[in-house]
Amino acid sequence: MATINFGGVPETVITRDEFPLDKALDFLKDETIAVIGYGVQGPGQALNMRDNGFQVIVGQREGTPSWERALRDGWVPGESLFPIEEAADKGTILCNLLSDAGQIALWPTLKGKLTAGKTLYFSHGFGITFNDQTGIVPPQDVDVVLVAPKGSGTSLRRLFVAGGGLNSSFAVYQDASGKAWEKAIALGIGVGSGYLFETDFKKEVYSDLTGERGVLMGALAGIIEAQYQVLRQRGHSPSEAFNETVEELTQSLVPLVGENGMDWMFANCSVTAQRGALDWKGRFREATLPVLNELYDSVASGAEARRTIERGTTPNYRQELQAELKEVRDSELWQTGATVRELRSRAAENVEV
User: 2-199, what's its fold?
Assistant: First the structure.
């Protein structure tokens, strides 16, 4: 373990130096890791662990698009790919990577497979934290751990293939074996984490739900729509409004902020941009603080979980979702974005190597 100061606040983190892959492999050498669900997080985590040398199998419903994807990724039926119930029987570590709604529906079946000494693994604290709504209460004689990569399964896999790693949080909810902490870290190293920082199930889900609804997606999408609308209403063309709102953000500024920090970005732009950003950021902060506090309170009260469960379990949710996404996709903003991406791709193809 290493103690590192984050903005002057010391935190304990685990890197591959403190817990190398060889140690993780040795610690889990007698375990069969069953990845249940091959949708969002499943492929990245399962493939990374397989490539790292762990004994991994996948559990997925036969005949689904996710089953077909698993076949394309090289999982072999009857050897490393099984129906969910059979994989849960064979696995000693059950990685429950189904959607939150899927976890609720499968729980009676999965609980029956959690015999004494097994491990239940999550990448999200939702089911455990809101168990008054989900009904997910594990048996007392199993370890319950969490590793939550801070990004999509696609990003986890892409960074792993490139030789990097996505940072992850980890937590122990129940330590029946006395080795759950080490087990969580070994699994975190196995899925390809850059470094691991400790949390608990409640903090993970509170921060995750707030982040998704806030800066990561909800707030980002909302402020993009607002700025694009203002520019269009003030007479700017779709191309200009999109480039000044989205293209420059995603293709130039955000990658540089990720690499060097916001202070570097401020220092390396024009005086006009410096003064504008520094003078206006406080206004945006103060305007959004009440909204973000309201959002956090909604998460902590269980209201966001309740809404997610209610919507996610309605029979026609998928059709309603497609209608919502179509409205976004068909908007002038994102139709313009599709054209800009096409032009960007065309320009990249014409660049001489």
Answer: Rossmann fold (3.40.50)
